[in-house]
Amino acid sequence: MPDEQMAGTGPAPAAPGNAPGATSGPPVAPRPLDPIDRSIMRLLQADGRASIRSVAEQVHVSRANAYARINRLIDDGVIRGFTARVNHERAGQGASAYITLKIVQNSWRTVREQLRELPGAAHIALVSGDFDVLLLVHTPDNRTLRELVLTRLQAIPEVLSTRTLLVFEETDLLDTGPGPGGGGPTISEE
Fold it and tell me: What's the pLDDT at 175?
């Protein structure tokens, strides 16, 4: 990979045992991060398109050191990839909701795979408390959202009940980059 261009738009390869949904093998110990690593991560979360030069200058290390640290964070699975933060309303997904689900005990893996297939599913979490799963969805409108809940979710046999919480407004706390949407998908040399 040339020194000028690093970390493409796709996700970084997951470390063994760290793949999303991985269930076999021993857990991988967290990688100890020093203050420079943490600063690099904060910068890249704010602007995934930051150049190596810019990152190096802001954390006061050489470009070679910044490049090596970022690659190590990727290789160790600390940084899982680089993505674009999307304004869902401007992208035609104006209705958003958090949906809580109660599911049949021990059916998490089966339900998770079915939820991944839902159009507009953005985040799925197994949680503790009064419900079992928290699902974030983005749909074009409330009619589509209603169909998703009443037709698709209710058709999953392991789903016992749902509760839909409409999102009226949201604020992306990581959205600190320039212009609407902040950072973007790549890191490159200036």
Answer: 60
pLDDT digits (tens, 9 = 90+) for 105-147: 999 999 999 999 999 999 999 999 999 999 999 999 999 999 9
Map the chain to HEC letters: CCCCEECCCCCCCCCCCCCCCCCCCCCCCCCCCCHHHHHHHHHHHHCCCCCHHHHHHHHCCCHHHHHHHHHHHHHCCCCCCCCCCCCCCCCCCCEEEEEEEEECCCCHHHHHHHHHCCCCEEEEEECCCCCCEEEEEEECCHHHHHHHHHHHHCCCCCEEEEEEEEECCCCCCCCCCCCCCCCCCCEECC
Q: Which residues of the chain have pLDDT under 50?
A: 1-24, 177-190
Q: 164-168, long-range: CB within 8 Å, 24+ apart, which pairs?
A: 164/97, 164/98, 164/99, 165/97, 165/98, 165/99, 165/100, 166/95, 166/96, 166/97, 166/142, 167/96, 167/97, 167/98
pTM: 0.65
**Contact in structure between 133 and 101 (CB atoms under 8 Å):** yes
